[in-house]
Amino acid sequence: MQILIQPRREKYQTPTNNNSPRCKSLLPHIFMAGIFFSSFSPLIPTSAVGQINSKLANSSLGQQLLQEVSQCAEAKISHQQPIDQTESEAIATKCALQILTLGSNEEFRPDAFDRVAAFMEAVGVKLPQSTSQGQANVKLNFNGESSIFRIPVRIGRQTQTFILDTGSGQTIINTQIAQQLGLKSKPVPNGLLEYKPVIGNNFKNLDVKVHTLPVLGVNSATVSGIQGLELPTYALPKDISGVLGLDFLSKFDVVLNPKKQQLQLLPPSDFVADAIPLKGSFGILTAQVYINGQGPFTFVVDTGAYTIAVSKSVAQKLDIDDRNAQTSEIFGFGGRETVKKIKLTKLQIQQHQVTEIDAVIVEQSNILKLPGVEGIIGQNFLNKYQQHWRFSKPNALGVVESGSLVLTP
């Protein structure tokens, strides 16, 4: 896939420090930061649905941000020993992340999407689009211990086992598969993933790379041009080669029948009136949930999670006494995390409700530190229903902003 760098009528000139020859021209590195953000955009926090507006074309904001990123990179590079191009690009990318998406409190800005989009417009980078065709009807493998569905995925000339994960905006492969396929990669600068919303807190220390993946296929359904992540093999569950995320799944209607262990990928159809609305929140999809008669709470709807998880603040609102709760460990891309096991008296999404359902209290994960995200709906709830997922088309940064879910007992 080609990255389009388009010339602009008014070309921005990067400020330079005459006393630092290494900083005479940062523009190529800023371009590379823009390209990196374009391929990495599903991991960038985005505003909720409906907040994409004229700022996409706000050239003055884009020029201002471009200048701030340039000045940040120049200042950092001028204090370094002679460094190579890769190190310069890493510095520029970190500056872009800090300035575009994080506030003074080191938390994500609510206008992060607008700022990233304006920056990419100023740099002249456009996000390449993936394409899809066909449909699928396949049998799923069910892991009884974790209640997670595994799906056979063709990648290159291989067929590997992936997790079906609506809680991941981006498709992921492990290092072993990337090496076998001989994929060209671009390393993610150390620390750039510190704020990625995942279970576990060690994600920032992983050796992560970005790839343009070969055509991915499930039965006769294929998607080409996906920008995927590579994680170390140990970061994924045993015998799992990858994660099939929303960048693939959103190209289709996804119909999942847990009882028959059957998956259908169908051509996209219009949303229906009685469906559960799903709203985009920082690159993931959420729904409104009521617990023990209280709420609504905003929970991620995640086929890649095996259990319901609630934040500490929600547990406190529900007056859940966890002082004598049994502890356990859950596993995510960021490593293992200790949680407290609880039971919810009643959980309801729209007209669908269950009673006496297991859950865990999660205190440390970044995913529950995102603004407005208070918990996770996992497969111990979802697997009680046939699920028909519908998705909106990705926005300008390739992120799915909305969707709907029909649950049938």
UniProtKB/TrEMBL annotation:
CDD domains: retropepsin_like_bacteria. InterPro entries: Peptidase_aspartic_dom_sf, Retropepsin-like_bacterial. Gene3D superfamilies: Acid Proteases (2.40.70.10). It comes from the Bacteria. Signal peptide: none annotated. This is Peptidase A2 domain-containing protein.
